[in-house]
Each structure stands twice: as structure tokens, then as C-alpha cells.
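[agent] plan:
  1. take the single chain provided in the ticket
  2. run structure prediction with default settings
  3. attach C-alpha cells to the ticket
  4. add a short note for the reviewer (M.T.)
[agent] executing step 1
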Amino acid sequence: MIFGSDIDSSNGWNAQLAMKFQKRESKTILGDTKRRGPLVVQRPFYPEGGGCHVYLIHPPGGVVAGDVLQISADLDPNTDVLITTPGATKFYRSAGAIAVQRQIFNVSDDACLEWLPQGSIYFPGAEVKSTTEVYLSPSSRLAIWDIQCFGRPTVGEKFNSGLVDSSLSIFRGETPIFIDRVRVHEQNRLRSSLLNSNPVVATFIMIGATERDVEVARGLIAKCVERIEASATLIDDALVIRYLGDSTNIAQDIFSDIWSALRPYIMKKSEMRPRIWDT
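[agent] step 2 finished; step 3 output follows
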């Protein structure tokens, strides 16, 4: 998918990355890739046979006012793709312009997408509009998480100014199966009932789940040593895990434990933790 130019990025980067994944014999390859600006893909590699692992890198290390990041991935039938990042995406204080992030994924029949980035950190004063849209076919498989941190709780820095409008939408055909939106601004900050004053809000979704899977997820949450606010629910075949707290590390640890336990059943692939998460 190629994005249009309807977003004003005159004050910052207009970074675009459009990826096309195809099946070649028993291997998923990264075919056509169109890019502009600083978004790059590290060379794909294959730690589990034919499935393709990709690391997405934004070289400047952070997003500032006026930057536009547009990412898309189209998965052909029977492709297997895992995409992650080497670190969290940092959104810095705005000087007036809004930073925009758009992510669109199209997953064909019998294709499997695992979109597992290492989260977003919003610095005080950041002005961000972020949208993620996933379009599934009837037999697609999906694992996707979204970990957001408002401020920097590890250094006592609160998100006491700025605006973040973030949404995640998943469709099967034309039918929405999951729609979620988080909007934090100066007027509500973190005091709303939505976040319960927590700086970290995170959501993890696996499509193709059963009642057995939600019970496994609840068991893993119950074993967590830290006192956390987390839940697991099943909406049709969508397993939805939610976390509220003060640690992105705890959120990712919980999510990755659940993902590892359920990957063989939902994604039909064995456990294979990306090594970059441990560096």
C-alpha cells in the first residue's frame, strides 16, 4: 500500500515504509518495499524456518513535532511474518505541530501476522495522533500488542501537558471485530477513570482464540508476582489482554509470556522469542 500525501509534514520528517510479503516455495520473503525518509527495515531473517522476522528501525531515535510516520504491510496468502522493533518509539515535546503515526496491515487468507513492537513513550508536551488499522481475511491469524507509556515514570516525570489520540481498529472483511481508542490531554491527563491515574496502558490481542486460551492467559496473569491491574477476556475469537500500571517492562513481560504459551495453539507456530527483546 502506498500512502497519499494528505498530511502536512513541512515541519518534520515524512517517513513512509510500504512492505509486501510473498510466499516463495516454503519461505516468506519481503518482496516489494517502498520507502521514503528515515524508516528502514533490517535485513529479514529466518530463525524458525520459513517464517520471516523483520526489525523495523527509525534511525533518528525519536519522533518530534511535525514528523509523519506511515507504515504498511501487505501479506499474501500463506505468509508468516513477525515484525518488532529494537526499542520503544519516543514521541518528544511538541513545538506546536502534531506528530502523526499511521499503520495499516492487510492480512490475506491463511497468512499470519505478529506485530509486536516495544511500545511508545510520550514525553510531557507531546502532541500525537496515532492510528493502527488491521484488515483480516476469514482465515487470517493475528497477534498484535500496543504498549503506551505517558510520561517517564522511572524518573518521576508525569505527562502533565500535551495530547495523545491513539486508536487500534481490527476488521475481518468489512466487519469491525475490535475498536479501541485512548485519548489523553491536558484536561483529563491521567485522572480519568479510563487510566485510573496509571501512566502505562497496554492491550494485546490474539485472533483465533478459544475459551481454553483465555483460561491459560488468566492463569499466567494470576501468577504474576507484582500487584498489577490486568485482565483477559474473549470476544468471539479475539483474546483481549489489558494492562494498567506503571511499568512497560511488566506489561511486555506479561504479554510475551502469554504469547509464548499460546503461540503454538493460536498462531500454529512454536515458541520463538525475538532475541532483540533481550538485548
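[agent] step 4 note for reviewer: The CA atoms of residues 23 and 190 lie 45 Å apart.
[agent] ticket updated
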